[in-house]
Amino acid sequence: MTIYELAALTAATLWAFGGMVSSTPARMLGAIGYGHIRMLMVTAMLVGYVLIMGSWRSVPIEHYGTIIISSVIGIFLGDTALYLTLNRLGPRRTAILFSLNAPISAVLAWVYLDENLSSSQIMGIAIVSLGVMLAVVFGKRKSQMHQWESIKGPLWVGVALGFMAALCQSIGSLLVRPILEAGVDPVATSAFRVAIAALCLTIIVQFPIKAVKRLNPLTPKLLSITALSAFLGIGVGMTLFLFALVGGEIGIVSTLSATSPAILLPLLWIKTKEVPAAGAWLGAALVVAGSVLLFN
To answer: Are 96 and 135 in contact (CB under 8 A)?
Structure first.
């Protein structure tokens, strides 16, 4: 395993751990309240890095409109739907549902960018979709009592929100991909997108609507957990992923980064002291296998 492949696998591990860490503050603060605080932290990290490196000027003005739309759809709407899913279905089901962004991206690229879908990619889409269904429907045993395995509200609502999160992330990536392929600095682009999303959330939380307000006061403990999630997921995880893309083969790097749902299972086992159900393991394995076909 090369250093680039190791970086991609480490990024996937950090994303899995970050998703597990996010569960408590997202539940305590609410999806929008948590997303707002976390997005402000991520913005400070990325903008600080870009200003130090001086790469902000690499983003041409003519791309601003596309980046803003990409941010609103992919990060503002996508992340909000993701945390709503997390609060309803827990970290395991949320991670497996979010893995649908890979086949959704492939289908969108086929429809809107005229990219060809090979027979192996079509098979990969089917396998990932089957894995997600198995993990959601048969991923829990009756003996599992931990709150992360409980479902709050109708299952179909949580699944719809998870699908929306994956769809929004895919659309956002599809919109910004031509900009990155043109040579614009990816970290500067990410900083721009995250800053726009943070601005949108800042505006939203000013509305006199209970649903957009923080559910509980922001304690030092919740703040530190949120900061840890932001640092691991974006500060370290995304940096490692970008590093892996620079020197590694895109197919291998993308496949390794898609192993988060499988990596999350042993982490949950350690945390909850409950062995994940056979359906959860099988579903995660199918997602990884389908990703291999999609990205290679």
So the answer is: yes
Report the residue count for the chain: 296
Question: What pLDDT is stored for residue 55 in this prediction?
Answer: 80
Contact by Cβ (8 Å): 89, 162: yes
pTM above 0.90, yes or no: no
Tokens representing 170?
């895919």
Residue carrying the six token digits 């305590």: 28
Residues 6+ apart with CB under 8 A from 85: 93, 94, 97, 98, 158, 161, 162, 165
For the chain, which ranges sit under pLDDT 70?
1, 145, 245-246, 250-251, 296
- Eight-state DSSP code of residue 248: S
Tally of domains within the chain:
1
Torsion angles phi and psi, residue 110, rounded to 5: -65, -40
Contact of 196 with 71, CB cutoff 8 Å? yes
Could you tell me which residues come within 8 angstroms of residue 233 by beta carbon, excluding any fewer than 6 positions away? 14, 15, 18, 19, 42
**Domain region containing 78:** 3-295
Whether the CB-CB separation of 5 and 244 falls below 8 Å is answered with: yes
- Alpha-carbon span 250 to 257, nearest angstrom: 10
Is residue 162 within 8 Å of 104, Cβ to Cβ?
Answer: no
Residue 67: per-residue pLDDT: 92
Measured at the alpha carbon of residue 41, what is the angle toward residues 61 and 86, in degrees to the nearest 5? 105
96, 136 contact by CB (below 8 A): yes
C-beta of residue 38 within 8 angstroms of C-beta of residue 226: yes
For residue 72, the model assigns a pLDDT of: 96
pLDDT at 5: 83
